[in-house]
Write a structure and sequence with these properties.
Helices cover 33% and strands 21% of the residues. It has 19 helices and 20 strands.
């Protein structure tokens, strides 16, 4: 197989950093391969992708050693135009990739820069629009799009240039399950039908693990595994390695529930029998003991809804248009009770972030009212509402004002605590709880996507609010960090948490209530088992296995 990429003794260090971000990489990626990059947040996956397309060190600076070759040519010797005509790159943060004000202009921008004829541009635009479901968004301004819609637009713009290679840094992090599935299947088709080489970094592996020809695992800037998904699953289940959290939930369930031979039997064939998909798992389950076909009993703590709600939205209507047209919330009624740990689902553009902004006071209502502990919310309520309601928006960059992680926390803690010792103790608790201690002197904008997300959450938590409204808090977090986040949220002295998410697997572990929003209205609301069991797309993998 001819090679798309070859790396020879590649090491890289970011500016002003002591440790290497990449350390002595030697590997090849064949033309037409589909490669899944795994690793903890900050392990080097994003840096690796930036190295392949020359952004490291051209844009980021720093020190690089070794050689990176694209189709046999040294990347450092190629012009930027030569690189972008061959490589399509989707940034971890789509907002940084969108430059123009309208969807239509954004779609054609890259093609115009490559000098593609107008007639061909129109054809490609129609194709990409259909592939990523953008038809209804053409006339919209980019600023009006949801995070998931921006992610699809950025990906469509990348693919419209017909690259030979796609580098995708968490392309489904802000997508609802339906669009995430569609995007990954589109990537599978362009890989199989067009022969495009795909390198995909992803934490939500349940939809893409089985699509990969090869898995590359990064740990602290080094490659510690290369091989097939089946080989990785076999090694992950060995007792000597701590890689299980990189496996799809269905694979972990089979191994941990002892539905297959013991983990130590990897050399005798467990790797070939561990299921990587629900279909494979269902087939294996049908061959086993009938007692193993019963779904596991899930213990769920429920909130007490018998009393008055903590926060209530009554007949709420909201719109971003100054004339009140194009309502996003349509007479919605929603109650949040003490003890609620809510996972709020909905397709991109359904109004989830808008609902959070209304509840946090960041967007005024067209009509209706908010009530906090039975009292109607007035303008005076918002004067010190940050002590009652903590709001984490979809974009963590909105929270950064200072030159280091520690300075960000110091500034926020000064607003909340007068006592210096109390501030110091709280800062250390947040740094350790959110795994930020090692980055305390780093600039916030130099952090990885997951690290930024954790820092923004730490800033919100400095005020110890009674209610937390979190918009995509698991974006960019690896499985270990998600578990730590769940433990942290359960331990905090908050009365309730509302978490907007597309991560059904995390919600299944954390939430005690699930709501689904569609076209500005709540269409499902109840215990996770109730909502998941009656859902088609909003259903965790293990639920699908036992669905009758």
């Amino acid at each position: 197989m001819s090679q798309a990429f070859e790396l020879h003794n590649v090491s890289y260090r970011y500016p002003d950093m002591n440790e290497l971000a990449l350390a002595n990489l030697n590997l090849q990626v064949g033309n037409g391969e589909f490669v899944l990059l795994l690793g903890a947040s900050g392990s080097g996956k994003s840096t690796f992708l930036r190295t392949l397309n020359g952004l490291v060190p051209r844009f980021y600076g720093g020190e690089i050693a070794g050689q990176v070759c694209l189709h046999g040519q040294d990347v450092s010797q190629l012009t930027q135009r030569q690189i972008v005509t061959r490589i399509g790159f989707l940034h971890q943060d789509p907002e940084r990739q969108l430059l123009l004000d309208s969807v239509e202009r954004e779609l054609v921008f890259g093609m115009e820069n490559l000098g593609i004829p107008e007639a061909e541009m129109k054809s490609r635009m129609a194709e990409m629009s259909h592939l990523f479901g953008l038809g209804a968004l053409w006339s919209k301004r980019v600023a009006e799009l949801s995070g998931g819609e921006k992610q699809r637009l950025a990906l469509a713009g990348v693919l419209a240039a017909y690259p030979q290679v796609l580098l995708l840094d968490e392309p489904t992090s802000q997508l609802d399950p339906i669009h995430a599935e569609e995007v990954l299947q589109a990537m599978r088709r362009v890989n199989e039908d067009w022969g495009i080489t795909v390198l995909l970094s992803e934490h939500r592996v349940e939809r893409c693990f089985h699509l990969a020809d090869r898995i590359i695992l990064f740990e602290a800037g080094r490659v510690t595994f290369q091989g097939t998904p089946e080989a990785f699953a076999a090694m992950a289940m060995s007792e000597q390695l701590d890689w299980q959290h990189f496996l799809p939930p269905i694979t972990r369930h089979f191994a941990n529930a002892r539905l297959l031979p013991a983990a130590g039997e990897a050399e005798s064939g467990i790797g070939s029998t561990l299921p990587l998909t629900v279909k494979a798992a269902r087939s294996l389950l049908a061959q086993g003991d009938p007692d193993t076909r019963k779904p596991p009993v899930r213990q769920q703590a429920t909130a007490d809804h018998s009393g008055e709600p903590l926060l209530e939205l009554c007949s709420g209507r909201a719109s971003y248009a100054s004339d009140g047209q194009r309502e996003v919330l349509r007479g919605i009624h929603y109650r949040i009770h003490q003890g609620d740990h809510i996972a709020l689902f909905g397709e991109n553009g359904a109004g989830k972030s808008t609902l959070a902004k209304v509840l946090a006071g960041a967007l005024p209502l067209l009509s209706g009212e908010l009530r906090w502990e039975r009292e109607v919310v007035t303008e005076r309520f918002w004067d010190d509402s940050w002590k009652r309601i903590g709001y984490l928006s979809q974009n963590p960059n909105d929270y950064f004002l200072h030159d280091s992680v520690e300075a960000e926390l110091d500034f926020s803690l000064q607003q909340a605590y007068a006592d210096k010792a109390e501030r110091a103790a709280k800062k250390m608790f947040l740094l350790q709880s959110l795994d930020l201690a090692a980055y305390r002197h780093r600039h916030p904008h130099d952090l990885s996507g997951g690290e930024k997300q954790r820092l923004a959450l730490a800033i919100v938590l400095t005020a110890e609010p009674e209610l937390l409204l979190l918009d995509e808090p698991t974006r960019g977090l690896d499985a270990v960090q998600k578990n730590a986040l769940a433990d942290l949220l359960h331990s905090l002295p908050v009365k309730a948490v509302v978490m907007i998410t597309h991560d059904v697997e995390f919600a299944a572990c954390y939430a005690n209530r699930v709501s689904i929003l569609s076209q500005g209205e709540i269409v499902a609301d109840g215990l996770p088992d109730e909502v998941f069991s009656h859902s088609f797309y909003y259903m965790p993998q293990v639920y699908k296995l036992y669905r009758t």
